[in-house]
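seq:
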Amino acid sequence: MIKTGKRGEVTVLTIDRHEKRNALSAQLTRSLLDALTSAAEDSRAIVITGAGSSFCSGADLDEDKQSGDFFPALTELLSTVRRVHVPVIAYVNGPAIGAGMMLAMVCDIRVAAEASVFGLPVGDQAIGVEGSIVQLLSELVGGSRARLMLLAGARLTFAEAVSCGMCVPGSFDDALALASDCAAKAPLTLRNVKAEFAPDLFDAKERDRLRLAALRSEDMREAMQARAEKRAPRFTGR
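struct:
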């Protein structure tokens, strides 16, 4: 199941299947997708984490191997995390393997506990990998390390993930504080920035539209007035 909690302008989504180390089935993946879409409607930032000692141990292929429903559901979830208009922060509280690492990768920011470890053992399970995932992994960890992970099955330790810049170290409270910082920023600007980070999902016309919407927004005028009045701006997303 997916647990949903609200902390001010931030929604926390917790994958709660700790007896299976939060492995994703097709049904659980769709539940997370639904919860994410709903949270984006009334939140300014979202935190995704796992219950217990794992973030997400990957796909529960034993449950879904006959139906073939899992991978289409996962593809939709990953693209939605990147497309949704509010920042999504992963709090990686433990191992993030396979689909779990992909989920962490597509989040905008990753905060990791020392217990975290990352892996993409696709070669061990004969799983096809989309080009967008390969490109994103290369951007996050570097091309050489990405090849080690995808071709040789190497894992990424907590220290390595922090060292290469894929994650920042911290606790759940740190992840929540970071999400709250994001939630205080101008929503239209954050939507514009997210689109620029995902040019494979937003065409040039749509990215231009989002950029111009931010430049012409009431929030931009509010930012100017707040500076003149020496106070924090109060952004409305208009």
